[in-house]
Write a structure and sequence with these properties.
The complex is a heterodimer of chains A (about 70) and B (about 525). Chain A is mostly helical. Chain A has four helices and no strands. Mean pLDDT of chain A is about 70; it is low at about 1-20 and about 20-25.
Chain lengths: ~70, ~525
């Protein structure tokens, strides 16, 4: 299907992986740990940019009016 | 079509700052950027002549005295000298701009307590995404400039819709619809579509209820703030279908459907499908082909669907059936597909393909749609945090992640980080976005508006969606050029005129009475 093609070429990592030939038996575990690694990286990255005092920052986000 | 975004705004170092003043700083900072050569800055005040915010599409007009003050959008926002003096610590005579009309045909202004960007008119969903993103680019440019100005506290802008304390602000869409389509037909067929549309384009929210009374995660930022099915208000008793009848166009021919129920999207696919599917459903309704499932309790259904990220919850139709949000979307998608003409253009097919494919993905496992849908991407990050640190939904870090997802600062925004990591699908390259911030679309009257401001900054003294006001040197009377037909004033019709006209006077003479009259918008 056209959409599928487009999405694959647009760089969806997980879908591209689904199209690879069956990996060697050890691969699923490797894939899983790569995925976990990806999530860890992401959380580390977000940790690095999150405002430091969550409670105070969220409390300070007050808006007035709006449509 | 076009979009409007009210940005959330704070100055962390000035917790009690007046929000109108902060918003005016955004407008003035962008004006300063324009003066430095990013584009031209005309002395454009907004022309309120044709604004009619109290005219109701159901055929009546609200009494001015009984309207909520925030409904009077035909009155310019003002800051009193006292307010300005109070903030600055000294009296000032300097003029503060509250409104700009940009070279790209958009409007950047202070809407009460928020800076708002209203995109130029476009003819297709991909352009809607591009010129909506151009608004974010404008917002970031203004924010960075304020941050660099000595004596000013940095402000942060958020592309979200609630402060999670009780206040919600909008991200609106506008669609041009033939006047011949009865409003009641539009409303009927759109209610179940809008109630369910959030599953493909909700922005996600930590907390439930307008006052954030309960903990948890929901699909839509806006859902809990809607209390009515149909009505004129946009700030109180918010309705699923807004009836404001302010066409900004030839009123006998068109109505402007003003949609206030959407979430502000950062994900480009979410945004593309939000406007693309809505436009397709509108065209279905125009042809009398829309499915019209009737919900027993639309407002209740809106909340119920939003409160269930598993997408399993069902809501009741008056014919006795129970359907999920995905079922409703599939009904509309199926009807659009069945009515799709064989010669449908490529972009229309792309919208339908992506819509269909996204519904399939969401049915398989909602979390698989993180590349295309804001609420899913946000939920995935939140769940990863919950799993790693064992956080309850009441943990303030989760609320912070929700907020910071929409932070427009490139280095701080979580959506921005996901985009940089190639974790989301993109549709428009950043270079095109930057270009769209200073150039109008070529195929609507926005071209005429944007180019007039770019070419004749000294002479254009006022503008609105459907007018431009010229003040020529040596002439005492102002000349108002009406642009009531949104599909005229295009590059195709007027580009040549801009090239040949020697100056504003020559331009107007050719436009209004000369041989080029056919080009008039």
């Amino acid at each position: 299907m056209a959409t599928q093609d487009r999405r694959n070429t647009s760089g969806s990592a997980t879908e591209a992986e689904e199209e690879l030939p069956d990996p060697a038996p050890a691969a699923p575990a490797a894939q899983e740990s790569a995925q976990t690694q990806g999530v860890d990286d992401l959380l580390d990255e977000i940790d690095g940019v999150l405002e430091s005092n969550a409670e105070e920052f969220v409390r300070g986000f007050v808006q007035k009016g709006g449509q | 079509m076009g979009t409007e975004t009210e940005y959330g705004i704070i100055a962390p170092a000035l917790p009690s700052a007046n929000p109108t003043l902060l918003s005016s700083q955004v407008v003035n900072a962008y004006a300063a950027t324009l003066r430095e050569g990013l584009g031209n800055l005309a002395g454009t005040r907004w022309d309120y002549t044709d604004e009619t915010p109290l005219t109701d599409a159901r055929g009546f007009r609200m009494d001015r005295a009984s309207a909520h003050p925030s409904q009077l959008t035909d009155e310019p926002a003002e800051l009193s000298a006292e307010q300005i003096a109070l903030e600055r610590g000294e009296p000032t005579e300097a003029a503060i701009l509250m409104n700009l009309v940009l070279n790209n045909g958009a409007r950047l202004y202070v809407d009460h307590a928020h800076p708002e960007y209203s995109s130029p008119e476009v003819t297709n969903p991909l352009d809607a995404v591009l010129w909506d993103r151009a608004g974010d680019h404008v917002a970031v440019t203004a924010m960075q400039r304020i941050g660099a100005m000595p004596g000013f506290s940095p402000v942060i802008l958020y592309k979200n819709n609630t402060d999670n304390k009780s206040v919600s602000y909008g991200s609106h869409e506008n669609y041009l619809v033939p006047r011949s389509v009865p409003f009641s037909k539009l409303a009927e067929a759109l209610i179940p579509f809008f109630v369910s549309r959030q599953v493909i384009c909700g922005a996600g929210r930590v907390g439930l209820g307008p006052l954030n009374q309960e903990s948890g995660f929901q699909i839509s930022q806006r859902a809990d703030f809607f209390e009515n099915e149909i009505g004129l208000e946009t700030t109180v008793r918010r309705p699923i279908i807004n009836t404001r009848d302010e066409p900004h166009a030839v009123a006998e021919k068109y109505r402007r459907l003003h949609v206030i129920i959407g979430d502000a999207n950062l994900n480009e696919v979410s945004n593309y499908l939000k406007v693309g599917t809505t436009a397709l459903v509108l065209s279905l309704i125009e042809q009398g082909l829309g499915p019209v499932p009737v919900l027993e309790d639309p407002v209740g259904a809106l909340h119920a669907i939003s409160h269930d990220p598993s997408l399993q919850v069902t809501v009741r139709l008056t014919d006795g059936r129970s359907v999920s949000g995905l079922d409703l979307q599939e009904m509309y998608c199926g009807a659009v597909l069945a009515a799709l003409p064989a010669d449908a253009d490529e972009q229309t097919r792309d919208v339908v393909d992506r819509w269909q494919s996204l519904l399939t993905t969401l049915r398989r496992d909602p979390l698989d749609a993180a590349r295309q849908v804001d609420w899913v991407a946000k939920l995935k990050v939140l769940e990863a945090y919950r799993a790693r640190d064992g956080l309850a939904w009441t943990d303030p870090r989760l609320a912070l992640i929700d907020l910071q997802y929409a932070d427009l600062r490139p280095e701080k925004g979580i959506y921005q980080r996901l985009a940089r990591r190639n974790d989301v699908d993109l549709l428009v390259p950043p270079a095109e976005v930057a270009r769209a911030a200073v150039h109008p679309p070529r195929d609507t009257r926005a071209y005429f508006r944007g180019r007039c401001i770019a070419e004749f900054p000294a002479e254009v003294v006022g503008a609105s969606w459907d007018s431009l006001i010229f003040e020529l040197a040596g002439e005492r009377r102002l000349q108002r050029v009406q642009t009531r037909e949104p599909l005229r004033g295009t590059a195709g019709l007027t580009e040549e005129l801009f090239e040949v006209a020697a100056d504003a006077e020559d331009f107007l003479a050719r436009l209004l009475s000369g041989p080029d009259r056919r080009m008039a918008p």
